[in-house]
Design goal:
The chain is of the alpha+beta class. Helices cover 42% and strands 17% of the residues. The chain has helices at residues 40-43, 46-61, 89-93, 105-110, 116-128, 147-167, 171-174, 181-188, 204-207, 212-230, and strands spanning 4-11, 23-29, 69-74, 80-85, 138-142, 195-202. β3 and β4 (80-85) form a beta hairpin. α6 packs across α8 (181-188). The protein is globular, with a radius of gyration of 21 Å.
């Protein structure tokens, strides 16, 4: 058996399939759509299929906003300016330059969704590209517990909040300073269908002779480096 093993994707509602070993995990947002979102036959025509897919792509894209950033500036006479900067998603995805050199969201995608063949291919590219071409939403470690146990904690917390959100659509607005993965995911609008994770487990028995404290230190070091290399949008420390 290999010492290191990649596992996934595991949807947030199926984390019981995660390894019962220590290691690292990373959450990703999957673009998960049904055939009715791109097929002319199921959508009721080619124009409707194009509208459906563009709508699904827009809704997914707008979830990838950065967390709000508290700022403090100091001026003369000990004056202090406090505030919170929030990302404007329209600036990222829409035309916003003075010379209009950046095409808007729909215009940039229109040529790639003009037929069932191209729409199917685009959806396939976006699905197959996970996680190879995707930055993680959140990256963490399970050192003193198994990956399955840690991911169960994530799932339980998130799914409780999701149930609250289904009854109270204003919940994200009240999460002014979301404190964990679950609250940040709800704040940005990620649904259970969006969230899948991959794991990298470590089989300590196969390593042979490594002390648990050393393994924990290795996992913590890798997590620290990966977080700073990838800066996941739902991470904090």
């Amino acid at each position: 058996m290999d010492v290191l093993k990649v596992s996934g994707p595991h949807n947030i509602q199926d984390v019981d399939n995660a390894p019962r070993l220590p290691g690292l995990y990373a959450w990703y947002a999957r673009f998960n759509v049904a055939e009715a979102d791109w097929s002319a036959e199921f959508a009721g025509g080619d124009a409707a299929a194009q509208r459906n897919l563009l709508k699904a792509l827009r809704e997914h894209a707008w979830k990838f906003g950065r967390q709000a950033m508290p700022v403090q500036a100091h001026s003369n006479f000990s004056t202090v300016w406090n505030g919170t900067l929030r990302e404007d998603p329209d600036a990222k995805w829409h035309a916003g330059t003075a010379d209009n050199s950046t095409a808007g969201f729909d215009e940039r995608l229109q040529a790639s969704i003009d037929s069932d063949l191209s729409r199917r291919a685009l959806v396939g590219l976006l699905d197959t590209g996970l996680p190879l071409f995707c930055s993680p939403l959140y990256l963490g470690k399970a050192a003193e517990q198994t990956l399955q146990q840690r991911l169960r904690q994530h799932a339980a917390r998130y799914l409780r909040l999701w149930e609250r959100y289904l009854e109270d659509r204003d919940l994200p607005e009240r999460l002014a300073n979301p404190k964990d993965f679950a609250e940040r995911a709800i704040k940005l609008g990620f649904s259970p269908d969006d969230l899948s994770c991959f794991t990298l487990s470590v089989d300590i028995e196969t390593l042979g002779g490594m002390e648990p404290d050393t393994l924990s230190a290795l996992i913590a070091a890798a997590e620290w480096l990966f977080n700073r290399w990838t800066t996941p949008i739902l991470g904090r420390q």
